[in-house]
Amino acid sequence: MLNLLNMINIIYNDVPTPYSCYFQDSATPNQEGILELHDNIMFYLFIILGLVSWMLFNIVRTYTKNPMAYKYIKHGQTIEILWTILPAVILLIIAFPSFILLYLCDEVISPAMTIKAIGYQWYWKYEYSDFINDNGETIEFESYVIPDDLLEEGQLRLLDTDTSIMVPVDTHIRFVVTAADVIHDFCIPSLGIKVDANPGRLNQVSALIQREGVFYGQCSELCGINHCAMPIKVEAVSLPKFLEWLNDQ
Amino acid sequence: MSDKTESPLHTVGFDARFPQQNQTKHCWQAYVDYHKCINIKGEDFAPCKVFWKTYSALCPVDWVEKWDEQRANGTFAGDVNP
Amino acid sequence: MSAIAPITGTLKKRIFTDITIGFALGGAMASYWWWGFHNGVINKREDYYAKLAQLKNSEE
Question: Between which residues do disulfide bridges form (chain B) (predicted)?
Fold first, then answer.
């Protein structure tokens, strides 16, 4: 019985699934914090829901002989003070943890590598400019969605891409996000990242991936007709494997 | 990373002048500083490399190309003269 | 003067029971959410990471 909600919650994975109603699995401390805050706020919301529903139900049920619905009462000083102060207090207890989280997620103190994500209509381009080859060229590649008719068995429609961002696990990564034409939005739910990609502006955001896996995200700012077809695919691998991949590039 | 092995990954660290999420000026300043630096000290002056690393890590390649072109045409907005 | 004593305090009594029941209802739902659902999710995740850390230690 206690696991009832866990059974409904079929999204125990790193990808969105049909009819899912909870978060994708978290892979970074940031996302764990977001999940904690969400569940915390939901706790307060359930209490409010219970109280308000019960009161409303009672008012409806006993309306005709309810002394609270006395028709000549036009003004109730006490109750008005109460229903102003109490919500303010509730908002405060929600606000403080959220500020802490907000400022923690904002920090990019000592990243070990930088990845640039540049949004185009309608694909992403990634640059790994910490690494320069002998010709002075940096690693840069574009990442397009795999069209429906080219999908192979097991690939995810509108989520899988031809090239993916490779990142090492347990490494502090800085994403520098920008766009070249219109506003896009770089979003990976499992990593707790969602940052707008504005033309002419560089936004940074950090991630510390704690486990290997493939994480998916989508452009999250309406950017035109193929807004749906510019997904983000991140492959988190161990550091030696990542270095191997770097050498291949 | 663990202490026993030196991490092969290095990138630009935190800069107190640019603590915000918006790193546009961080990239721009490093680009201007680098070219000012090499104009004064010459291409091979090692300390200039810091700026080079910073701007190449942060600035999109397209931006750098555009600015390089502007410098060649003499229309660059930043002050890079010694 | 009426023969029956005036009936007072019903409002106070009602509102007290109603608020109690309301909070009890809400508290029950919230408790289920937190201890029944949220903690399960967190424990699953922590177990996974504990296992992962163990695996990494055994490999070294």
Answer: 27-59, 37-48
pLDDT tens for residues A222-233?
Answer: 999 999 999 999
CATH code: domain A113-248 is: 2.60.40.420
Q: Which residues contact A88 (CB under 8 A, 6 or more apart)?
A: none
Question: What does the block give as tokens for A67?
Answer: 């002394």
Using the structure block, give the residue that is written with the tokens 């009890």.
C24
Q: Residue A236's beta-bridge partner residues? A: A167, A213
Q: Is A86 helix (H, G, I), strand (E, B) or coil?
A: helix
Residues of chain A whose C-beta is under 8 A from some C-beta in C? Answer: 2-6, 22, 25-26, 32, 35, 39, 42-44, 46-55, 58, 67-68, 210-211
Contact B61 A113 (CB under 8 A): no
* Sequence-ordered list of residues with C-beta below 8 angstroms from that of A19, at least 6 positions apart, any chain: A10
Report the C-alpha gap between A144 and B13 in whole angstroms. 31
Q: What angle do CA A217, A191, A226 make, to 5 degrees?
A: 15
**Cβ distance of A109 and B14 shorter than 8 Å:** yes
Token look-up 């424990």 returns C43
Q: What is the pLDDT of residue A73?
A: 63
Give the containing element (helix H, strand E) for B67.
helix B61-73
Which one is the CATH code of B23-73: 2.40.128.600, 2.60.120.830, 2.20.25.10, 1.10.10.140?
A: 1.10.10.140
Interface of C with A in 3-42 (CB under 8 A): 10-11, 14-15, 18-19, 21-30, 32-34, 36-38, 40-41
Question: Are residues A188 and B12 in contact, defined by beta-carbon separation less than 8 angstroms?
Answer: no
